[in-house]
């Protein structure tokens, strides 16, 4: 982790914000789906992509909240191209309906950003393994689609309000070890838009730099097992 503003090979660090890592980038002509776009770093990711000119489809579970966030962004960026569509990732029926509706919309799809609300433990490992195997499958098929995974970092959120001790600790030392939301969205926006990442696939990013995940997350056999399990679980052919 590139702490305290120390920059990695990309020229960015843990202190870099989403706006900083996308400065000067023109994303007009790109269409992105952002899941979890109505809260936390999902909102900032949506805002910054729209700021750079991308058409962002906000995939949200609660449409009312999604529309409220959309209106807030539009007040700041009146020319932003934003749409909201309902998506509950815990329901395969919802996922299939979303996919069907999106295809029917005729919109292109240049970026798919899975902004997971669970970023630790087994879910984090599964995300890395899935991206690794997806990148391998896409390469074998000869497509020009890339897939990468990332860790946004430890972010100070309002969840801490339920833990008085942790909240007090975060208030005193958090500025040194925790990211704010603009910093938390930086790696996502970097991987999505920065020219340095063009053509890069199957990598893991942290603090807007390529990083090395755990040995378990680099296990190709485990990645394939997870892929096959997911295919069977979702009944995809």
Question: Secondary-structure element sequence?
Answer: HEHEHEHEHEHHHEEH
Low-confidence stretches: none
What is the CATH H-level superfamily of the largest domain? Answer: NAD(P)-binding Rossmann-like Domain
Instruction: Report the β-strand fraction as a percent range.
Output: 5-15%
Query: Which fold does the CATH topology of the largest domain refer to?
Result: Rossmann fold
Instruction: Please report the number of helical segments.
Output: 9
What number is the mean pLDDT?
90
Q: Please estimate the helix content.
A: 40-55%
Known CATH architecture of the largest domain: 3-Layer(aba) Sandwich
Overall tally of domains? 2
Helical/strand content category: alpha/beta
**End-to-end C-alpha gap:** 39 Å
Protein name: Short-chain dehydrogenase TIC 32, chloroplastic-like
InterPro entries: NAD(P)-bd_dom_sf (IPR036291), SDR_fam (IPR002347), TIC32 (IPR055280)
Organism: Punica granatum
């Amino acid at each position: 982790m590139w702490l305290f503003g120390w920059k990695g090979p990309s020229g960015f660090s843990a202190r870099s914000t989403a706006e900083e890592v996308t400065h000067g980038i023109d994303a007009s002509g790109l269409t992105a789906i952002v899941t979890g776009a109505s809260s936390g770093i999902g909102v900032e990711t949506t805002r910054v992509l729209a700021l750079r000119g991308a058409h962002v489809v906000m995939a949200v579970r609660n449409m009312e909240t999604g529309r409220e966030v959309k209106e807030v962004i539009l007040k700041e960026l009146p020319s932003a191209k934003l749409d909201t569509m309902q998506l509950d990732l815990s329901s395969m029926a919802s996922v299939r309906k979303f996919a069907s509706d999106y295809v029917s919309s005729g919109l292109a799809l240049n970026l798919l950003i899975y902004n997971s609300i669970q970023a630790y433990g087994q879910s984090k490992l599964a995300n890395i393994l899935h991206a690794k195997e997806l990148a391998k499958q896409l390469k074998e098929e000869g497509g020009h689609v890339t897939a990468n995974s990332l860790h946004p970092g430890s972010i100070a959120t309002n969840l801490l309000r339920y833990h008085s001790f942790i909240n007090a600790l975060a208030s005193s030392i958090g500025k040194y070890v925790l990211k704010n939301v603009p910093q938390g969205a930086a790696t996502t926006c970097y991987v999505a838009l920065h020219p340095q990442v063009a053509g890069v696939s199957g990598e893991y990013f942290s603090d807007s730099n390529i990083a090395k995940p755990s040995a378990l997350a680099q296990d190709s056999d485990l990645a394939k097992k997870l892929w096959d399990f997911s295919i069977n679980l979702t009944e995809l052919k």
